[in-house]
Amino acid sequence: MAKADNGQADGILDVLIVGAGISGIGAAWHLSTRCPGKTIAVFEALDSFGGTWKVHTYPGIRSDSDLYTFGYRFKPWVGPPIATADEILTYMQEVIDDNGLDRYIHYNHRITKARWSSQEKVWTVSYETPDGPAEVKTRFLWMCQGYYDLDKGYTPDWPGMADFKGEIVHPQNWPDDIDLTGKKVVCIGSGATAATLIPNIADKCEHVTLLQRSPTYFIPGRNENELADELRRLDIDETWIHEIVRRKVLLDQHEFTQRAKDEPEEVKAELLEGVQAFLGEDFDMSHFTPRYRPWQQRLAFVPDGDIFQGIAAGKASVVTDQIDSFVPEGIKLTSGDVLEADVIITATGFNLKFLGNIPFEIDGAAVDWNERLTWRGMMIEDVPNMLFVFGYFRASWTLRVDLLGDFMVRLLEHMDTLGAVEIRPEVPAAQRGMERTSWMDPNDFNPGYLMRGQHLMPKRGNSPEWQHTQDYWHEKEDLPKIDLDSAVFVYEDADGHVVGKHPADAA
Fold first, then answer.
1. Which pTM was predicted?
2. Which of 7, 9, 214, 373 is 20 to 30 A distant from 58 in Cα terms?
3. Closest by CA position to 50, among listed 128, 107, 100, 3
């Protein structure tokens, strides 16, 4: 732990960042460059940075949102809007190298428990390394692990799976030695993973079939940004290009998201028209016509319509049906048909995690996240000195990393000004009777992984302050204006005395 001490006299870190994926690297940049007096460390359970971009190695793995907004605001993106995992990892490596972040990162550090002491005003974090178990103390935790289980993807337990004579593979655990040459492949799923995999294996397989229970909306288009290309042709500085294109993309996304709510049928027609342009007028579009309105689940961009090109060329096909059971030769559908397969790929989603499923305790009592409210989707009711990153479903995840970086810097500076060593959000007395409901309204956003994992997540209240609104376009204006002396916040000094304005003093 020599790196993590960073010369701190008492051996206690100011901030421990958990995770070295896209969120953790962004968090490390904000703290190291903007709070140079703070001692920080980054703990990563894997043997390198990248998170999901390191773990997922299936053919064609790429972003499903544009990199002008998925990339950090402080690091211009100069590649195509939709990027491969390798391109994203290269980008992250440049952020690490350019800012000397490697000195803060500790790989193969898997956290097993976090315990808060109100007397000491610190978190004691237990973790495992190749050299054995260890502990470190930190004044603040910034949780940046993402939102799903990187160890194992979600695969339903279908009848007869043990009877199948071929190989069953989940994309999250893609084997290095798999050979699909000349094989009949069935890919179960309808989201971005299936749409990415199929065009990247179709040329090797005898045939690949997309089997979906229900369709998903896609946005096919060219993997380029005409505005960025034109600005480069005019020899505009990349920093300017990044900012201009970023603003334009965000404006377009905002307008599209609003239209999906206000005029869903028109948006639906436009999306289906874009798909049919690749498949032809005679194609049965019921296979790409979802039952839900646009943006009730995530929309994925399909660069150059590659999956649709494969279907149109006969290299791939799509079947919309229910699975009755697995059989030795493949999959039996509820329609009675059997899809023959040598390999079945279960692109069926992932398992939701909250804060890495790490056990948390406060003064010896276990924390049940599902019993507590979230404060703006970044802090938890009555949990001291802990911030977490949970991004956006309808905009790039990384946008919130930058917004929360701004908030974290401002919060730490405010605590120093007050002489506070503890902060926790409390529900003011007048709001304690508010209704507590699930993390997300299923009528607003309802993908399978979120519906399966709601019991793991904090609750939301009936005011915007006590929920994650998922509205970047509102939050980008609202979060910088948060009153750090609000009645929501309780600050204490090292002796446990309340400093600043206490909620009980508020009108």
1. 0.93
2. 214
3. 107
The predicted-structure confidence for 262-291, as pLDDT tens digits, reads as follows 999 999 999 999 999 999 999 999 999 988
Q: Measuring CA to CA, which residue among 481, 131, 164 is closest to residue 339?
A: 164
The pair of structure tokens assigned to 88 is 């994203």
Angle at 397 between CA 122 and CA 55, to 5 degrees: 80
Per-residue pLDDT reduced to its tens digit, 100-159 = 999 999 999 999 999 999 999 999 999 999 999 999 999 999 999 988 888 889 999 999
Question: Within 13 A of 430's CA, how many CA atoms are on the CB side?
Answer: 8
- Beta-bridged to residue 319, according to DSSP, are 211
- How many angstroms from the chain centroid is the CA of residue 71? 13
Strand ranges (E), 253-329 = 300-303, 316-320, 323-327
How far is 426 from 381, CA to CA, in rounded Å?
6
Q: How far apart are CA 149 and CA 157, in angstroms?
A: 18
Tokens of 354: 């909250």
As given in the structure block, the two tokens for residue 195 are: 């749409």
Q: Do the beta carbons of residue 339 and residue 229 sit within 8 Å?
A: no
Distance CA 316, CA 319 (A): 10
Residues forming a β-bridge with 378: none
Please report which helix (H) or strand (E) contains residue 239, including its range: helix 238-262
- Residue 104 CA to residue 123 CA, distance in Å, equals 18
Residue among 373, 351, 412, 400 at smallest CA distance from 141: 412
CB 144 within 8 A of CB 30: no
Q: Which two tokens stand for residue 349?
A: 């989603």
Please tell me the distance from the alpha carbon of residue 154 to that of residue 128, in angstroms, as a whole number: 26
